[in-house]
Amino acid sequence: MVPSTTEHAACPDTDQDADHDTGSEQQAPADVTDNAPPADPQAEQLARIHHLLRLALTVTVLVVSIWLVGDVLMVLFAATLVAVILHNLAGHLERRTRLPYWVALSIVVLIIISALTALIWSSGPEISEQALRLRAALSEQARTLRDRMDDSTPGRMILDNLPSSFGGNEHSSGGSGFGSIAGSMTGFVTSAFGAAGTLAVILIAGLYFAISPEIYVNGMLRLVPREYRMRTRDLLLTAGQTLWAWTAGQALDMTVVGLLSFIGLWIIGVPLALALGVVAGLANFIPYIGAFVGAVPAVLIGLSQGTREGLTVLGLYAAIQFFEGNVMAPLIQRHAVKMPPGLTILSQTIFGTILGIPGLILASPLTAALLAMMDRATPQLSDDERV
Fold first, then answer.
1. Burial class (CB in 10 A: 0-12, 13-18, 19+), 139
2. Nearest Cα residue to 206 out of 100, 86, 312, 345
3. Could you read off the pLDDT of 301-337 as tens digits, one per residue?
4. Under a CB-based contact definition with an 8 Å cutoff, are residues 298 and 273 in contact?
5. pTM, full prediction
6. Distance between CA atoms of residues 196 and 278, nearest Å
7. Residue 239: C-alpha distances to residues 128, 183, 370, 372 (Å)
């Protein structure tokens, strides 16, 4: 059947109408976009100010919280550090022996307790005796040094401006108001338990954290909004791995420095070589500053034997630190955490000022964990963005 002329004539009109409608539909979004009202600059500025105020409030609350309960936070972080050490040691043993995790953790704890018991049983009396003699010798050296400084005008000026806690004559007035409240709140751990009790709390809490770390980590993740949980989980795992790498490297560094100090002092003939070696090794837990802290008692004891012995001890510690900084540290940092020296010293100053001795001791691992989390959370610089 041949289509009629009327039908042929109607078809082009229909096609044209369809094309016209399609063109109108395609142009509609462009018209809507062109006619959209411009963004309000005042609203954008208010949103920016709101974001800055919220960031400032968050930082202020964080700083005040650290100031008020800094000791508690340091105890919590120290317990976390102990848990990371025990968890990773048990994990290595679990992978090598195919034992259940709780069995591997029990073996690790028993080995540590047995090693400490054997050390105390074999060398405890000698170390205690040498520690008491070291304290008496250092007190005598401090009194002699103060008497010599008191006999000269420059020495008296130094003593008059040195706080009494460091052997000077200046007595700092006690804080009042909000500062004294903060001091009393931050120091409640040490006042309630003392150093030994605080150490016991750290070890026991760290052990419980290591027994079932998933309970505590999952509890923290539940406090985070759902859209940020995977990111937060990734950052927490990164911090844990960094703390383990830093601790393992620092433990090796401490052992080498302690052994070299003990052997060198024993060869020179300095008394209390074992105790001084232990002090040097433990003080090396604090990078850079710890080297100076560990060397001061040995140099003072050496000076008590004579100027030549004191200079020899000073040269020994300088050689040990040169070896540690140029040989040991690069080897350790290949497999552990590399931290810029300037940032390390700055973090020790900041945390030491805010939190005292605990902040100074734990500043380096805390900074290492924060740096690792920041490196994970922020994008890397491209080649043209680098300085």
1. exposed
2. 86
3. 887 777 888 899 999 999 998 888 788 877 776 666 7
4. no
5. 0.66
6. 19
7. 37, 29, 7, 6
